[in-house]
Design brief:
Number of domains of chain C: 2
Helix content of chain C: 40-55%
Number of strands of chain C: 15
Distance between the termini of chain C: 51 Å
CATH class of the largest domain in chain C: Alpha Beta
Structural class of chain B: mainly alpha
Order of helices and strands of chain C: HEHEEHEHEEHEHEHEHEHEHHHEEEE
Oligomer: heterotrimer
Largest sheet of chain B: none
CATH architecture of chain B: Orthogonal Bundle
Chains: A mainly alpha (282), B mainly alpha (329), C alpha/beta (388)
Strand content of chain C: 15-25%
Radius of gyration of chain C: 22 Å
Radius of gyration of chain B: 20 Å
Distance between the termini of chain B: 30 Å
Shape of chain C: globular
Helix content of chain B: over 70%
Order of helices and strands of chain B: HHHHHHHHHHHHHHH
Chain lengths: 282, 329, 388
Amino acid sequence: MTILFDGIAYGMVLFVLACGLSVTLGLMNFVNLAHGAFAMAGGYATAILMNRWGWPFVATLPLAFLVPALIGVLLERTLYRRLYDASHLDQVLFTIGLVFMAVAGTDYLMGSRPQLIRLPEWLSGRFEFLGMQIGRYRLFIVVVCGVLTVALQLVLNRTRFGSRLRAAVDDPRVARGLGIPVERVFMITFAAGSGLAGLGGALGAELLGLDPLFPLKFMIYFLIVVTVGGTTGLTGPFVASLILGIADVAGKYFVPDLGAFIIYTVMIVVLVFRPRGLFVRS
Amino acid sequence: MPSKAAVSRLSTLGRWRLAEILFWLAAAASVPLLTEHHLVLTEIAIIALFAVSLDLILGYAGIASLGHTAFFGAGAYAAGLFAIHVTNDPLLGLVAGAAAAAVLGFATSFLVLRGADLTRLMVTLGVALVLGEIANKAGKITGGADGLQGVFMAPILGRFEFDLFGHVGYVYSLVVFFVLFVVARRIVVSPFGLSLLAIRDNPLRARAIGIPVNTRLTAIYTISAAIAGVAGALLAQTAQFVSIDVLAFHRSADALLMLVIGGTGYLYGGIVGAVAFKVLQEILSVWTPQYWTFWIGAILVAIVLIGRQRIGNGVMGIWARLLGKGGAA
Amino acid sequence: MFRRTILRGALAAAALAGASFGAAAQEPIRIGLILPLTGPFSTTGKQISAAANLYVAQQNATVAGRKVELLIRDDTGTADVTRRIAQELIVNNKVTAIAGFGLTPLALATAPLATQAKTPMVVMAAATGIITERSPFIIRSGQVVPQIAYPFGTWVAQQGMKRVVTIVSDYGPGHDVETFFSDAFKKAGGNVENIRVPLANPDFSPFLQRVADAKPDALLVFVPSGVGSQFMKQFVERGLDKSGIKLIGTGDVTDDDILNSMGDAALGVITAHHYSAAHNSPTNKAFVEAFGKANGGLRPNFMAVGGYDGMHVLFEGLKKTNGEGGEKLVDAMKGLAWESPRGPISIDAETREIVQNVYIRRVERVGGELYNIEFATIPNVKDPSKIK
């Protein structure tokens, strides 16, 4: 049971990290390999605030969202928007370039050592509940991410903004004709996606580690989540994250020798049987 | 029944242009002129061959792959193991590498044929990553993370021994590269190659006019895998060593980057990209060994922003003039 | 035909080289330093290059009356690149010796080259046992894994522990730690269970859960240095520290480079290693201070000391040969003994392997900072894998 819970927590972190990508890639059809760089920015924001200025962990989380979101807006305005219509290969080239710059730049500014954050007392340790060993921090992650997921779903499906976004994605020209400020919608979406990645980076720093190579190390994981989940809405990536998280943790527990194969095998199997991911818009 | 026009069009396509001839003459000239740089040139030739193999599937058949290094690695390990356990004749080793990669390519092509771009990227990537893990786990055979050692190559054709300066290695790599390039070039201007272009541009219509889409894709995927396998085998033979990172993700990604920089779909893109990327990397990494990746990144961003098209047009303008001359001659 | 061209080219190159050497006996001595300076192992490269630069600066960049030039190159941790760079340094830059080598496969790929070119090769970081057997031109200045793991196994058994679970990263050095620790521990009557984890593994929870279920006396861990802190935090997070399972390991886990930022999770961890920045000797104090001063307060770790001593071996050897390289230099370096920042060390004349003390240390807080405090010494350990 503890394994199941750990898997869920791991999956949740993956989801928060990747959901921004599923928005840009799935909805806006932009291959943003630099997504992990925004996650890293959030992680570093938290690490710097905590280690240099002694902020409490929870207080840094809003900034871990805001800083990458602002960087996101800036880059979206200046660079990304020019490439919405470019070919996928150009987008790959461009965002990989950004990743390289982010990696080397962070290394230069912060050093290549991994950044460590210290959790407050009330988040460390674990307790027993119905015979399950539950890590406090993991529970915290599950709760935060759960709330975020519900909120995102609501925003996307129930609010005016959500429907505008969906319209803008489906057919930008018609949407523009209907008076929807497509560019603004895209900008806000992009910023939110970057911010979420940053938040994921801050929350995940404890479990996944944080160093300048973060964007490269986890790029593959993000892509796996998005492709397995399918590129429509957030349900797909959410379910995919959970499946991958649980499969990975359980697999490593029960057959440690095959540990590294599991996540890739799951991906290949899913994609072979459902080439467009688990959830496809009909 | 192909029409006369089609036949003549094919033969025009297949004709060698002046610029191409000049390019290969320049490559040959690097043998006596750039003796100091033969080692890095060998590396470039191998990567360029790898990028060309990727161009065959990406540029001509429209299959994007992030796991092409699976075949590069398979070729490298096959050639290395072949040299240790069977015979250390280099040419036979190349055949072994090509065969192993081709078998693997054929087997995995069925996974790859399904799905769209992103799915293909991820499936190919997954295949390569799983292979990497297998190579790591099968330490008894592959040497695991320590790499496969004890690869000693016999002299090529029994005469030319691999030397410390890397001269023989370079000439050998260059010749193999040239031969395979000619093969690849022949393939893409054949009716088979043209049918691939039709599939790339519109699979549905291609099917409708009677092109056996899946068979064709499987065929080109297998061929491309075999060529990538030869590139891997060349690396194993010239380095006399196979390390596990022949299967690493960054090799696939690098090849894709080079190909995109150089441009897809005309075979020379991979070469141009490989030369540009490696030369830049050499210069930058001597200049600032710790932070050269930053500048590479900045250059990539700049390329995209200025527009590959625009840079390409500049180059292509010159190219076209040369081509025109070549065509007229 | 090709052969003739090549021969001619080679001859011309040799003639040129000869001419330039003849013209100036005062050509600087060049030493090639090949390290992973980018990529996942870049901290290794940075520590070593910083230490090597420090040593060269301290010697005013001269040895045996000649200038010394250090050529530092990045191999990105990719074996064929390491080999190619080594080859270029030897052929084009005419280096007297090559040094560095952050990882085992990188060293192994280059070893045949050292033999072929008769160029001494100083391995500063890569730590698997077989490396020095791959070429008679290899000298090791860092550490050998069995040298640490084997005596540690014996020591742990002597402390009365009966059951140990090992968790190691699934690659060469990890396997070495597992094998040699287990051998020694079993020989002393203990019981071991081995677990291997993938090298790129962000979440240790499933493995730690297995350990929690097995309830051993101690858990031995070996993971690449950066990952160690994550491991320790998750160890504490699961409450394993309070369940009476001792966390032990080789010093890689409590790497001085990042130890201080690990926080209280690291307190009390017991490790065996050859170097601690807190080693109590005047030589070490001077080294730590000079290193910190030259690198913005950075604390040297075991990689740095490997680089520093590696340069020392080269310089002492060059003094003896009066700047000459090749086999003479290797012979001159064999058998050298001196007081290093880590304590007394020597180069085994037979195996060309480093002989050094292995210290048992505990992580403690000293003056607000975390350090590995040495409390037991196993003197003059030779690599046990080479004692027949």
